[in-house]
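Section 5: illustrative case.
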């Protein structure tokens, strides 16, 4: 990565990424990995150290796997050990099991993470990529766009010098207060949550006698959540009391008083504290022309499911393959149209479920907690939600997250797919593909993966001759016979054709 002073001439690139938190960092890395030239802009001087996301799942590890960063991140993670929900009398009323060592995604289903360490892995990777220019201490003040691209007017906050960035497309991943969202006249749809919580992180010593697993403590006015983050880092979150003075709530003496039933100053060091107002919001416009939103710029998720960070990463993996194919492979710009429809409905499901879960923390019951966790398919219970309308075959099981089996040799399936569409099918079926089928595979850049014995078993478990998987690891369709698969390939190729007649 080039560390660049404010340039006199406009910077040019394929994609400008505004906001370099975990979502922007992943977007920029995925773009750069495809060979696209990226300018990455962030208003901060470096990674923010405030307490923020603490949970990722196996799906997010697949995104890191795609970038070759999963093993680099793993030492900073702690596999989820389980959770318990206590009522106001301190009795356990519901639990979540610990994550298995290898879940359906090929990785443990759930991890705890210290977000600045995740960001550090992404930022280091960006700085190793020569097609990325990083501009920190830089804010975007205006944008304009035409048929060829987007012009961003920005300013270095240290030197006060203005600069321009010319990009074919721009991704706004600049958080809940997104400037990019404001500049494209996008507004949030509010699902009604507006709840301040006090969040504090501690480094504990061996003297601390606190739970090994995440614990939710019920209280009629101020429920609390305890999280065993990673190593010796522990987090406590408290819903603010009505009319509480939030400016004083994070004073160290008030924080210590609040956590006194669990830890004392001789058992821990207060690392940082902040007030976060939990909201449930989804943008009504995810795209305007050549400008698109991702992460908190597009949605805000209350943390009760631990899915805020995960939801943003899903945006990244869904968006970047479309941008790559439009810019590098001459796919029609319409390929970007369904990004917002797919992601907004999916994010809304998680946001509404998390909001409802938050209301149960004052008086949790086993049935209410189990039902809400099952609505997002947690730890193998229930079914994950389907994407909103978009590029998949809903009549044949499309729009849901694919699992990631291993081959007989122990290779994870995604290693065979790359960041591409993949058609996994038995050897016999693959040998029967017609020349037109092969043309459709080529036009949509679909990787054909003839199944070995292990992948044959996976196909059989799904009663399938073939399974077509998208680059973001969501299923395009599950097909019982070759005729169904042929029709699906033709339909997929149609999304890539500027003249639909070429795929008929």
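Designed sequence:
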């Amino acid at each position: 990565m080039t560390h660049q002073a404010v340039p006199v001439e406009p910077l040019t690139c394929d994609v400008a990424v505004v906001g370099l938190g975990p979502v922007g960092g992943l977007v920029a890395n995925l773009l750069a990995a495809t060979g696209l030239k990226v300018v990455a802009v962030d208003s901060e001087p470096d990674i923010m150290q405030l307490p923020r996301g603490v949970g990722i799942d196996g799906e997010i590890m697949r995104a890191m796997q795609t970038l070759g960063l999963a093993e680099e991140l793993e030492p900073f993670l702690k596999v989820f050990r389980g959770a318990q929900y206590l009522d106001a009398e301190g009795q356990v009323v519901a639990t979540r099991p610990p994550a298995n060592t290898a879940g359906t995604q090929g990785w443990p289903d759930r991890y705890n993470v210290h977000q600045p360490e995740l960001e550090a892995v992404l930022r280091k990777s960006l700085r190793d990529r020569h097609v990325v220019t990083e501009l920190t201490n830089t804010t975007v003040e205006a944008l304009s766009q035409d048929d060829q691209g987007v012009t961003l007017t920005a300013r270095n906050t240290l030197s006060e010098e203005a600069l321009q960035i010319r990009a074919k497309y721009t991704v706004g991943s600049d958080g809940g207060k997104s400037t990019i969202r404001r500049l494209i006249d996008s507004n949030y749809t509010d699902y009604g949550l507006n709840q301040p919580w006090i969040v504090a992180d501690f480094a504990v010593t061996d003297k601390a006698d606190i739970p090994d697993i995440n614990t939710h403590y019920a209280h009629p006015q101020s429920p609390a959540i305890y999280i065993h983050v990673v190593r010796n880092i522990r987090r406590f979150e408290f819903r603010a009391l009505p009319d509480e003075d939030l400016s004083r709530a994070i004073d160290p003496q008030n924080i210590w008083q609040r956590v006194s039933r669990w830890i004392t100053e001789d058992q821990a060091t207060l690392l940082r504290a902040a007030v976060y107002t939990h909201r449930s919001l989804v943008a009504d416009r995810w795209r305007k022309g050549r400008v698109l939103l991702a992460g908190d710029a597009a949605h805000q998720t209350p943390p009760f499911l631990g899915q805020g960070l995960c939801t943003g990463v899903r945006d990244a993996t869904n968006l970047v393959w479309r941008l790559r194919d439009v810019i590098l492979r001459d796919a029609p710009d319409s390929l970007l149209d369904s990004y917002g429809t797919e992601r907004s409905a999916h994010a809304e499901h998680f946001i509404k479920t998390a909001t409802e879960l938050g209301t149960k923390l004052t008086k949790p019951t086993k049935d209410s907690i189990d039902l809400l966790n099952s609505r997002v398919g947690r730890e193998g219970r229930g079914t994950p939600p389907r994407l909103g309308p978009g590029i998949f075959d809903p009549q044949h099981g499309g729009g849901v997250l694919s699992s990631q089996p291993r081959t007989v040799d122990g290779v994870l399936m995604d290693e065979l797919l790359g960041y591409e569409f993949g058609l996994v099918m038995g050897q016999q079926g693959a040998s029967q593909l017609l020349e037109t089928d092969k043309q459709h595979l080529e036009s949509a850049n679909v990787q054909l993966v003839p199944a070995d014995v292990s992948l044959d078993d996976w196909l059989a478990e799904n009663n399938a001759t073939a399974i077509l998987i998208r680059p973001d690891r969501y299923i395009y369709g599950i097909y019982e016979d070759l005729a169904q698969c042929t029709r699906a390939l033709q339909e997929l190729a149609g999304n890539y054709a500027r003249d639909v007649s070429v795929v008929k």
